[in-house]
Please model this.
Amino acid sequence: MAKPRERDLNIFFRMLYLHHKRDETTSARHLALGMLCTLELATRIRGYMCAHPAKSPRVVILPLRGKESMRFAYDRPSLYPINPINPASLLPIVCIWFLSLVGCGGGSISTPPPPPAKDFSVVLSPATVTTIPGAADSPFTISVTSQNGFTDSVTVALSGLPAGASTSPPSPFTVAAGSSQTVTLSVPATVSPGTFTLIARGTAAVLVHSAQVLLTVNPAQDFTIASSPSTLAINAGGPDSTFTVSITGQNGFTDSVTVALSGLPAGASTTPPSPFTVAAGSSQTVTVSVPATVLAGDSTITASGTAAALTHSAQLLLTVLGQVQVTTWHYNNARTSANTWETTLTPSNVNSTSFGKLFTKPVDGFVVGQPLYLPALDIPGQGVHNVVYVATMHDSVYAFDADNADPTPLWTASILSYSPAGATPVPATVKKETGIPVRFTSSQRRMRTAT
Model:
């Protein structure tokens, strides 16, 4: 049955008092008045008890009209006997009954609520973690806070990590109530940049709580390397040429890069010498020197930049215009008889006034084979020479200095010395040929011949 509200009781007892106000029966009138006063007293006691629960009195003084007063303990009504002749003796009991009807907040009171249940909460700190792939590990802390006397350990499971990432300790792990666990997050270089929500879910029996941390994986710092121009042509022995190596930082990269050059032709050099360093966002001009001894040809120069574990490279095509080796018939395997690296001779300057025989050198027989040429050859005991090789039908091989008119060969040898027994030279009756071209020179625009 629902309990009456305070206002309803007040109205009821006021009407009861007014009904018995002129009643000659004093007891009935006093009883109504007393019950009305007792209701008001109960209301005042209720207000004090609600406002001061720790100071609620155990003994209540009930003032009555006139000089009398009544004292009662609101929690021990049985100590006060009831006088059936005097209705006022019922007032303590009525007051206690009213207190049971009227609760804090102005309405009916119910049974006091049970104590709060034991529980816990999970907190992650910091709330955001920012890293880059392959960077140093990032720590964060998981804390378990006890509530209402909770003392159990909590099992924490992590989810939401990017593929390839890991934690130490690995998930799941336990955290005691009132303590915390530092978790180390590792994001390898293979993880793609992005934003991830990492969820820590704590479980203890039927209790489950979770917290989140926002993980941001930014693009890794990096750099690019470039060479400019991408091709370079140099005359061997001519003026130096330059190219530029540039380093561009990416995603906040600010380190210096060590640059090493490879692929230079033998004898060529650079300034500054390799390796050298270039700061991020800047460039370095490199001067290439190619001496006259360097043969004509194409070379791929590779500029490799290194900063810690990062390595990138750029390439430059270097074309050296210089002397060529003649090591087969008609200059090359295609038998083109063309020197495609020629830098001086042109159709206009190859004429009778500027191009012709320079000198001749004697040999012992008819020259049939293609004269061969090796520039800048180091001959033991004789130094470096540009050498022309010719072989005669008299089975002799000669090595001549192509730049010196001295008829004495650098060396000569007879093939018969290395031939099987019984080998003989070509008969002397075989006519010798004279005026065999030996070498074309680009720098002097002259032709040397042997006879």
